[in-house]
Structures are given as C-alpha cells and as structure tokens.
Amino acid sequence: MPEILAIVGGTCVLPETELADSLLVVEGDRIAWIGPRAGNDPPPGARRLDATGLFLFPGFIDTHVHGTHGDDVMLDGVEGIRRIARNFLRSGTTAWLPTTIAARRAELLRAIEACVAARERPGDGAEIVGLHIEGPYLNLARKGAQPAEGIRDPDRDECDELLAAAAGLARVMTLAPELPGGIELVRHLRQRGIIPSLGHSDADYDTALAAIEAGATHATHLFNQMGGLHHREPGLAAACLTEDGIVAELIVDGVHVAPAMVRLALRAKRPERIALITDAMAATGMPDGSYRLGSQTVFVQGNRCTLADGTLASSVLTMERGAANLAAFAGAERVAVARMASLVPARIAGCADRKGTLAVGKDADLALLTGDYDVVATIARGRIAYLAPAGRARLA
User: Fold this and answer.
1) Which of 104, 344, 370, 382 has CA atoms 20 to 30 A from the CA of 323?
2) Residue 289's pLDDT band (boundaries 50, 70, 90)?
3) Helix 105-120 vs helix 77-88: angle between axes, to the nearest 10 degrees?
C-alpha cells in the first residue's frame, strides 16, 4: 500500500482561490484529496503534517537556472546537476529546467548530455522536466555575461545536433531573431516542438513582431539584454509587453528589474503570461566571493553578481525569495504568485497536466510556506524532501 500523508490545517493556494483550514491528502506520489478540515478526518494510519498558520503552494518550477550551492550546469557533470536538484528543495522548488550558456559545440554537447543522464538517474532532488538551451545564437552586442567565444550565428544543422543530444529533453532555446537565419530558426524550432525564446537580442520592434509571427512565444529575462523602452523606438521589450502570445520570464530580485518595472510587466502581461525565474548561478546559497558561470568568473557581493567590468551576470535569487518580492514589489496575491512561480512554468515545461497546481490526481509536489514566503517544508513526489530545522510544521 502507498504511504499516506495528511497535511492538516494549512491554507491551500488553489488555482483561483485560497482554502483556509484545509486537509490535503497525499497517497504515494499523487494528491488524493483536497478539502476543508472541518468534518473530514485524515485516513487511518496516515502520517500527519500540522500546517496550522502556514500556506500550501504547488511546488515551484524554475525554468531558467544555471546552478546553485557551488555547482554549475556547464561545468560539474551529472553529479553536480543532481546536487543542484537536491539543493533546490530548500527553496520550495520541486522541478526545473537546467539552463546552458553560450559555449563551443563540444562544451554544449557535454553539458546537454550530462543533463540527459541526470534526468535518467534523478536521485531524490527536484525533477528535471526539460532543458533550456540559452544560446549560442545570440547577439554579441547584447551578450551580457555570455562568453563571446561561444556566440555565433544560427546554424540549423548544429541546432539539430544539439536537439538530438537532448534526446527529447529540450523545451526552450533562447536566440536573437535579428541574426542571419534567425527568423528561419524560429520557424524550425516551432516545427520541432521547441519554444523559441527571444533574448540577448538587439531586435527592433518590427523584427520582434516578425519573430512572433514566425512562432516565437517566449521572452528570456524580460528587459535584460534587450533594448530598453523608448517612445519612438519601442524595440523588443515593448513587443514582448504588448503581444499577448509572448510569455515573459522575469527575474524579481530587485537588481535585474526595478520594482516599478515589475509592476509594469504584471499590468501589461497579467500573471497568466509571466514566468518567475531565478537565472541563478553557482554562487546561490554561498558566501560572497568569486564563482564560475561556465567559462566566466563572476564576483558576488550581497545579491549582486557581476563580471570584472561590472556587467550583471546571473543571480543568487531563489524561487521563494522571488515569490516574496512579487508580493512586495507588485502587491501580487498568493494565487497570482502561484500562477507565475508554478503553473506558467509548468506550461512552459510541458508538464501542466501533472504539475503546477494543487489538484487531485496531480503530482504531490508541494511547498509549505510562512506568510512571508519562508520555506517550512518541501514535499517532492509525495515525499517530505525538506523540513526546515526550525520549521513550524509538526510531523506526527
């Protein structure tokens, strides 16, 4: 018989509303029942997790992340990727898309193959539900912290080689559509079932619209490494804000995007078309110092990560802090936060049929949080995978 876990007394953050003083029952790795606690008892023999005063969210899904706690997707192989997955549980993240950076062909293939192998031998961490290939077909003028030696014009044969190495795991590829062959590559990716994401790009407004018409449906870290908003030259950022077909990633750390621009993005896109991401690197969860992001050295002080020349380079954001910032910067309600941190990412990853919301029959991937978005417990595939040492949840 599968193990039964009853989470008692918390507030469930459902797709459209909140259910206070709830009972949520997990059987094996699936959600078996959700309802009010009043008049309903946990099944006989169930383990009880007392969630009184806490909030139960669907597990967070990070669709753009390069590393954490000293490990880098590009550098540390299968075991490093598995360590990243385990460390994500501390932040309520139960699924993720390892994200590459621009690199030479052999380096990219090695990292992609490591992600595939880690997916095949997942261990007990957050589930790998896809792969985000960021580059290598980016604009040098908007490279940010992407290594120049890894950037090149679109090459369809090479692209197909990368996708073949990903063995069906690739979900998103970031590219600059203004490059020679960029629009054609957007069409090709759509035909292959891959999401073309516009980013690290100097595309003007008309080129952005042409890419969207060709099948682009995603924007990589909105506002960052794309032309800024201008009333006579609207550019890529404006196209991403105004076109309903675009889902925009947003790094809500207070460094990459100012709070006022977070509010603007939410008003323009609504939570249905915003995906909270971290863009986190190996320095996440570590003390200040210097760390690697692929072939680049990044210097970290507080929550600011830069190259030696001051260029912003990835982040040390975690999903639960990004969720808290959505509430603080833009007044986002918990239902909206859950949509941006779980449901929209699940749709990007192609797993919304089993993840992204609290619903009967879905994977029991859950994050138990305080009202301030501190993580008390993380349940991954029905297992209590993380319990904060000083957490308020009580397990019986």
Assistant:
1) 382
2) very high
3) 60
Residue among 223, 286, 217 nearest 252 (CA): 223
Q: 99: closest CA among 152, 173, 165?
A: 173
Q: Which of 279, 288, 363, 374 is catalytic?
A: 279
Task: Check residue 244 and give its pLDDT.
Answer: 96
Structure-block tokens of residue 366: 């859950």
Please tell me the pTM assigned to this model: 0.97
Cα→Cα distances 135→83, 111, 138, 149, Å = 24, 13, 6, 12
Q: What is the pLDDT of residues 310-360, one digit of tens each?
A: 999 999 999 999 999 999 999 999 999 999 999 999 999 999 999 999 999
Residue by residue, DSSP assigns 71-116 as EETTTSHHHHHHHHHHHHGGGTEEEEEEEE-S--HHHHHHHHHHHH
Residue pointed to by tokens 């008049």: 39
Mean pLDDT of 78-98: 97
Kindly give the interhelix angle for 205-214 and 182-191, rounded to the nearest 10 degrees.
Answer: 30
* 279 is a catalytic site residue: yes
Q: Which two tokens stand for residue 214?
A: 């060709």
Longest dimension (CA), the chain: 66
Secondary-structure percent of the chain, ordered helix, strand, coil, rounded to 5 = 30, 30, 40
- What mean pLDDT value characterizes the chain? 96
| Whole-angstrom distance, CA of residue 50 vs CA of residue 140 | 52
CB contact at 8 A, 123 and 151? no
Write the pLDDT tens digit of every residue in 227-243: 889 999 999 999 999 99
Residue 121's pLDDT is what? 83
Taking alpha carbons only, the member of 158, 163, 242, 248 closest to residue 198 is: 248
Strands 366-369 and 375-380: antiparallel
Pairing of strands 11-13, 55-58: parallel
What are the structure tokens assigned to 127, written together?
A: 């589930």
Residue in the block written with tokens 């992340």:
65
Q: How far apart are CA 12 and CA 14, in angstroms?
A: 6
Calculate what percentage of the chain has a pLDDT beyond 70. Answer: 98
